[in-house]
Amino acid sequence: MRSDSRLSRMLHVLIHMADHEGPMTSEGIALMLGTNPVVVRRTMGGLRESGYVRSEKGHGGGWTLARPLDQITLLDVYRAVGEPSLFAIGPSDDDPRCLVEQAVNAALDEALQAARSLLLARFGAISIADVADDFRERAARLIGGVGPASQTG
Predict the structure, then answer these.
(1) Where does the signal peptide begin and end (predicted)?
(2) In angstroms, what CA-CA distances link 152 with 19, 85, 135, 142?
(3) For labelling, which of 24, 79, 121, 134 has a CA lying 20 to 30 Å from the CA of 110?
């Protein structure tokens, strides 16, 4: 099963937007993410509708932040990108009349719901500014010569 990277990708984009002078075009974001500008516009549209980014058309237009990163949480972005599935596992529906299947599904549903609630609460406690600060600390260590070399992009 292929993982859904919309949340990760949009967090990445928002952090770059905070450090970028002026608007970022869909084409530029698509190039950075290795995807199509149409996919970028569709995904960024959810962020715009939620009030986290703005878009301007025409020459010199593009995407800009509508709020500072410390006012946007991982939960906000998760919701804005359509609340993708958090878990690849789930209940079976091979034989809904089977009492074993019912018991297994009840146990899984309860555990997954508890895990989902905990994860979403954690997402709500982390601002994108927190993630950007972690990035900046990692970049400073790399530039300062501490730690393994890697890309910052």
Answers:
(1) none
(2) 13, 28, 8, 9
(3) 79
Q: Tokens for 41, please give them.
A: 């516009």
Instruction: Please give the sequence-ordered ranges of beta strands (E in DSSP) within the chain, or none if there are none.
Output: 53-56, 62-65
Per-residue pLDDT tens for 107-146? 999 999 999 999 999 999 999 999 999 999 999 998 886 5
Q: Which two tokens stand for residue 134?
A: 């972690």
pTM as predicted: 0.86
- Helix spans in 20-85 (H): 26-33, 37-49, 74-80
Q: Cα–Cα distance between 78 and 107 in angstroms, integer? A: 26
Domains recognised in the chain with CATH numbers = 6-143 (1.10.10.10)
Residue 149 has pLDDT above 80, yes or no: no
The tokens for 30 are 């698509």
Q: What Å distances lie between residue 128 and 20, 22, 72, 101, 107, CA to CA?
A: 15, 19, 6, 41, 34
